[in-house]
Hints:
Blueprint: E1 3-10, H1 26-30, H2 38-54, E2 58-62, H3 70-75, H4 82-92, H5 94-101, E3 112-115, E4 125-129, H6 136-139, H7 142-152, E5 159-161, E6 179-182, E7 191-196, H8 216-225, E8 233-237, H9 240-243, E9 254-257, E10 260-264, H10 271-281, E11 287-291, H11 298-304, E12 310-313, E13 319-324, H12 325-329, H13 331-340, E14 347-353, H14 356-359, E15 369-375, H15 376-380, H16 390-403, H17 416-432, H18 440-443
Parallel strand pairs: 1-2, 4-5, 7-8, 10-11, 13-14
Antiparallel strand pairs: 1-15, 3-4, 6-7, 9-10, 12-13
Helix pairs in contact: 2-16, 4-5, 16-17
Amino acid sequence: MTYREANFDGLVGPTHNYAGLSFGNVASQQHAAQPSNPKAAAQQGLAKAKLLADMGFTQGILPPHDRPDITTLRRIGFSGSDNMVLQQVAHDAPTLLNSCSSASCMWTANAATVSPSADTLDGKVHFTPANLVDRLHRSIEPAQTGRILKAIFADKQFFTHHQHLPEHSFFGDEGAANHTRLCHHYGETGVELFVYGKQANQSHTVPSHYPARQTLEACQAVARLHGLTQDNTLFMQQNPTVIDQGVFHNDVIAVGNQNVLFYHQQAFANQQADLQKLQEKMHGQLHLIEVPQDAISVNDAISTYLFNTQLLTLSDNNMVLIAPTNCEQHAGVKAYLDHLLQLDTPIRAVQYVDVKQSMQNGGGPACLRLRVELSEQELAAVNPGALLTTERYHTLMQWIDRHYRDRLTVADLADPQLLIESRTALDELSQIMQLGNIYPFQQN
């Protein structure tokens, strides 16, 4: 049976803005209060997804959440009509309006952790939405994310869905951004690498400036839920010094696929010893590609998102790196990537993509996608409306043109018309993607 890795990209929502909500995410803070372009952001992300589909990869889409999130605003004491709620929160607590209007669900690398059927004890694909408790604007996402995943991966014969972990910092979970699956061939049992920033009950070896968002306890809990074994898991700690430089998720400093791990020299806390364990679990057949600090600094890796790239296997078993154009425009990083292609590694090509609207808010190509390894039968059980075809691509581009603004400021989030526009767009999108009534406003 044929197995493949599918990428499900987050469709950027109509309220995409630069409110600078993510402490520890350098790009997010640097671009705070600048005007955004939701239409361009959605088109850039969709064009990237279409490029991969045209290259022969299985490509899916995850829809945006309903924003501004009126349900959460009511939960914390704002009342009256939807317009009244917006007026109250804009006047009394504008930072709460910013948090409840974020389009951050576009970064589906944080949507969930996914384990393929080859790794799990029951032979099903397992999903656990991330609780994202470290940031307020993201902590409101997991319930809606779970509804979306259940609507797309609905067949209980193949898919198992878990509730997100308890909403407490002890179980801080950021999803697939801190999870990499390595294997020799898709469909064979692999090694699931969980990367954590701290142990919840210990205060040593933690960053001193920016928060460590992922806990070891969360990683262990997800592994238990998914029915993973000691033989096919490894827990590695992120280097606290790079977190303090702005590496808020592991996918900002490392990326892996099949039997390749591409990472920075300073990525992990106990790098040499842990990578040796990983190599042993991979039976000595793991390609370790370490980028030295004297070739690319951590700061340059962060500013260009060299590692927030998609590493994908081509039909000839060589690999391509899908990198943001920021890498191409940085002389040092471009020179390094040109040199990389001359080395004896499985990475044989680099494809640059323009996702600047997402990059300015702190998310590169890898942030925009959730990887799901599927067999032919499992893929056939996926809701077909979530898979990107040429026809659906053009339909979605037209949908974006009809419903999205090309300029949005933080002040615009209080505009009642924006809520109407967003809900009108999402109501139509749920029909385009054949998802049913997945949004609370559709059920009311």
